[in-house]
Design a protein that fits this description.
The protein is mainly β and 441 residues long. It contains 2 helices and 28 strands. The strands form 7 sheets. Strands 3, 5, 6, 8, 9, 11 and 16 form a 7-stranded antiparallel beta sheet that branches. Strands 1, 18, 21, 22, 23 and 28 form a 6-stranded mixed beta sheet that branches.
Length: 441
């Protein structure tokens, strides 16, 4: 049984008009620390031989079509701030590998921003740094590519190869170690791993009123033959570095390291920090939510989709946030009505719970607004226990930061909607309405 819930009532607090930007001064609209929707795929690492051929052709990747368009439904993708696969000293540790021969091959990222008047936008400029190759789209139209072949790009298409020096020590005996000081010792070789597209001019005529999407498609570069050795079966395997864990030195040849979309003129709402006002956004029940999270500026929440089985309990999550304290947060749900027939799941079968602040999460420094370059990592808190009642007041969780940054902290409270599916429920798709409110909202 599928259950669908949608937001029906949400009053947004109006904020005062912002000063007009100077005609010729650019401002950040999206950056690598904004929240992005991200999907990625893993396949066996392709090995490029000295002849230029592959030992084994890259494996086919079943990635979705039409994902670069603004209306594509990415609600099941991970929502997180970037950068993606950055690493200490730029060494590019492989990090998200499945095993010694399988690692990340393709990354799709989608960043949203809101436009109220496309005609008022004078210019758009994008700078990105990455590993591997990149193809960039604005609202479905390609606007640039770097280190990729010409022509049609398939999900499994590999980026242009790196020089041998990006992989191995002088002489080629082993991989450059990802730690122990070697990234600094061989900084000239490590720098070869970082690629860039600079000052890409995006045509403002590609913008549309409402939600716009900048999509960045990142492809893995192959490993060069010099970075491999023959295994017992005669096939090539990746070399190791030094130390007791040499596989840590196999670096990921695909990553989004930085992104900076800037605009001149008016008519755009930046999406680089928490916007003012009350927000509701979608979240995945399987992912951590933190007290520094916020929704995309000017973007309404999507329907909450819950797939359930008879006599089971299944959950979806919406998150309420505000730049000020939230008082008397309250959610309610009506009956869930089948698309076909007269079947209903009564409102009483939907349990509503509020997620409360938990402990500090020392691994969550990337959730601190502005990214992991801050030196104070330990005060980001995850949302944890569930309660049938929201706190009377959900306070702003401000953080002590070094340096002056354009950061807005706020109050955050996830709302869990758990459907207790009746054992005699008829199969089908059901729709319901969830209303979220608070004092003054």
């Amino acid at each position: 049984m599928k259950t669908r819930m949608t937001i029906a009532t949400l009053v947004i607090l109006l904020i005062g008009a912002q000063p007009r930007a100077a005609e010729n001064s650019s401002r950040a609209i999206l950056n690598s620390h904004s929240f992005w929707r991200v999907n990625l795929w893993h396949t066996a690492v392709p090995v490029r031989l000295k002849s230029g051929a592959f030992e084994t052709p890259p494996q086919t990747i079943a990635a979705p079509c039409g994902w670069v368009t603004p209306d594509f439904d990415d609600s099941e993708w991970v929502r997180a701030p970037g950068p993606f696969f950055a690493s200490k000293d730029g060494a590019g540790w492989i990090g998200y590998s499945v095993n010694d021969s399988v690692s990340s091959a393709l990354i799709y990222t989608r960043g949203r921003f809101s436009v109220s008047d496309p005609d008022a936008v004078k210019s758009l400029t994008l700078n990105i740094t990455y590993r591997g190759g990149a193809v960039v789209y604005l609202n479905g139209s390609e606007v640039g590519r770097g280190d990729m072949p010409e022509g049609d790009i398939k999900p499994e298409t590999t980026a242009l190869p790196y020089p041998d020096e990006a992989f191995v020590l002088p002489g080629g005996g082993r991989l450059i170690s990802g730690g122990f000081g070697e990234p600094k010792k061989y900084a000239d070789r490590i720098k070869l791993r970082v690629r860039s597209l600079s000052k890409i001019s995006l045509d403002p005529r590609l913008l549309r009123r409402g939600v716009n999407v900048l999509a960045i498609e990142l492809h893995r570069a192959p490993y060069n033959e010099i970075a491999t050795k023959k295994g017992r079966d005669g096939k090539r395997v990746l070399k190791g570095g030094r130390g007791v864990r040499p596989y840590n030195d196999r670096w990921s040849t695909v990553a989004l390291l930085s992104a900076d979309l800037r605009a001149t003129g008016d008519g755009l709402q930046p999406n680089v920090t928490r916007p003012k006002g009350f927000q509701v956004w979608n979240a995945d029940p399987l992912l951590m939510i933190y007290d520094t999270d916020y929704g995309d500026a000017g973007v309404d929440p999507l329907p909450v989709r819950i797939v359930g089985a008879r006599n089971g309990r299944h959950s979806g999550v919406l998150v309420a946030g505000r730049h000020q304290a939230i008082t008397r947060l309250k959610a309610s749900v009506g009956d869930l009505v089948a698309e076909e027939g007269a079947a209903k799941v009564p409102a009483s079968a939907v349990e509503i719970r509020y997620q409360l602040l938990g402990e500090v999460d020392r691994s969550a420094h990337t959730r601190l607004p502005g990214g992991s370059d801050f030196r104070i990592y330990t005060n980001v808190r995850r949302l944890d226990a569930l309660s049938p009642h929201a706190p009377e007041t959900i306070s702003v969780q401000a953080k002590k930061l070094s340096g002056k940054r354009n950061v807005v902290f706020g109050a955050v409270c996830p709302v869990w909607l758990t459907v207790h599916v009746p054992k005699d429920a008829a199969a089908g798709t059901y729709h319901g309405v969830c209303t979220i409110g608070a004092e003054g909202v």
